[in-house]
Design brief:
alpha+beta; 1 helix; 157 residues
Length: 157
Amino acid sequence: MGWMARGFTLQGDKMLMGMGHMRGQVAIEFLAVVAFFMLISVPLFMYFYTAAPQKEYYASLSQAESAADELIKYGELVGTQGNGTTVSRVIVFPKHATRVSFNSSHVSIHIEYSDLKTDIVRAGPVNFIDSTYSLPAGGSYSFTFKNTNGNVYVTKG
């Protein structure tokens, strides 16, 4: 039996072969698009995955600077109001803050993140009585500022 007896014609075979070629071309084009997408997205993903911890650390530093500025501001407020003045405020610290220290005219917030350690220090026109408080995992803490003979004593509530 020849190819004519099986119902195939030369024209039909060429059409079937052409359709197979079209499907193959579509599959290759699809793979090319997927490969291009992977070529672009994988490096971007890796960059953001590796840069995220550093960004979190820098955000903690910025939040600690704001908290230190607030502590100075309330210390100055109490220091200028006269002996016996007391103010209580809640201050928010970043989650990587481990302690806050008051020393003469300085406020220092210690930040520890992985192997990176930094102290954020702010100075003001007020004299603080020396004190240090731990801040396990940062968070919100109540502080009381009291003017005692021109010096500001800060307690953590």
